[in-house]
Write the structure tokens for this entry.
Amino acid sequence: MDLTRWLRWETGLTALAVAMFIVMARLSPDFATTFTLQSLALNAAVIGFLAIGVAPVIMGGDIDISIAAMTALCGVISAVLWTHGVNIWVASVVGLMVGAVLGLVNGLSVVLLDLPPLAVTLGTMGAYTGVGFLILGGSAISNFPASLVNLGSGFIGVTPIPISSVVLIGVTALLAILMHRTTFGRTVFAVGSNRQASRFSGLAVVRTRIMAFVICGVLAAVASIFYLGYFNTAQAGSASEDLLPAITVVLLGGVSAYGGTGTILGVFVALVVVSVLESGLGVMGLSGQELSIAVGILLIVAVASSVGGRWLRGREGSGPELAPPPAGPGPAESSPQR
């Protein structure tokens, strides 16, 4: 039996999610209720879209910490267009295009200008948030059409299954196919593993890295649609509290902080783990600050696991020290090779 199939990171995360669910249900009888689980799923949608969106960027060896700011700005632009008489779904499509442009700006700045992705996206995070505040002037827009609100907070027919959860699962499946079954995905992993070698191998390194940022921007815009529908409000600082959980989900899901490894399935399972943790602790009465502490600790654990996994892979790749070859009978065999 191939034990490695059963010892995958995703298997461990699934076991952790189940164990955590059982513990939370025992600690608080209010946790394992339909209302709490529905709230858990609805709250997880925005974080989920952000996490699976930034995952390809991190898999490619980069980082984008402007994802929440892009979500807020796309939501603001869609909301403003709606207040000026534009159909909410047309406005949402415009928001998706804006997200693609914002992601493209990040990608071009990082890749073509050869700038550190952390510094660039930290700068664009501030810039995108500032633009949102300039557009709204510190105010908020709310009371969106029922169709949008139903998308973000409604359920499928008479079932208790949130619409946002079904959409998230569908988008996750599509991205999993893209990352694990296409040339683009294989190139992302190759670039994340060794960018220089990928370039020498003739892979489209520049285009692949930029496309990863564009995908990130588009999914940040998708998150904005569900944010508007669920919270029924648009503000320049929207979704800022989702940045830490989203990055935590990606790294906890087995995506290496250095790039080159990870699965979309692992990211999705990690989303369940983080959502159960946040929801369970919230039901137990912990404040938002205390939840941030818990998620922050989980992020440190995830990064430590990533570093440890990289070290172990390096040890395995180096292999055991080789004994010197036996002396040959003639000088030709003992001479060094050129």
About this structure: The longest helix spans residues 288-318. The two ends are 44 Å apart (CA to CA). The longest strand covers residues 141-142.
